[in-house]
Amino acid sequence: MIKSTEIDDLTFNEKSPLLVLKILAVAKQGNYNQSVRTSIIIPTLNESSTIGKLSKSLSSLDGDFEVIVADGGSSDNTVEVARRSGLKVVEAPRGRGPQMNARARAACGEILVFLHADTQLPSRALSSMDEALRQKNVSGGNFNLIFGGESRE
Predict the structure, then answer these.
(1) Which one of 41, 48, 49, 140 has the minimum C-beta count within 10 Å?
(2) DSSP string of 69-99, one letter each residue
(3) Other Cβ atoms within 10 Å of 107 Cβ, number
């Protein structure tokens, strides 16, 4: 049985691939009693129209975090927009999986968040993740999605 925890508009459970706790053994032993650093990893390929808005939304987050844009060889100005927005950009092999894996290995955070460039986190996302991951039976989770834009009805 999967133990799941809902906090605000976030859902965390043991099997979700969106968050990975690198210090899982420490968290599982109940020694997870201080705030930890989060690495937000954003794989990109031609995301110049969304990366600036994402950067602005990330600036409203509270907590200790780094943002790493893993660009897979964009032919537009994604890299330039991201850097102008203050984001750390690194080159990665093309493909969402290879991009995420390459940056996850180099991330400094104990919590890894993989985020699409057209997605925004709630302002309490990091503190909610930290709170949920303190539970011994929770090692990861995912966010409920809310789609914006016009209805397709």
Answers:
(1) 49
(2) EEE---SSSHHHHHHHTT-EEEE--SSHHHH
(3) 20
pLDDT, one tens digit for every residue, the chain (153 residues)? 334 444 344 444 444 334 443 333 233 334 455 667 888 999 999 999 999 999 999 998 988 899 999 999 999 999 999 999 999 999 888 887 888 887 887 788 888 888 888 888 888 888 888 888 777 777 777 777 766 666 555
Give the contacts of 76 (CB within 8 A, at least 6 positions apart): 46, 47, 48
CA 41 to the chain's CA centroid:
5
Distance CA 24, CA 89 (A): 27
The single residue listed with the structure tokens 């999605």 is 145
Closest CA to 41 of 23, 20, 13: 20
Residue 91's identity, in one-letter code, is E
Cβ contacts of 116 within 8 Å, gap of 6 or more:
42, 43
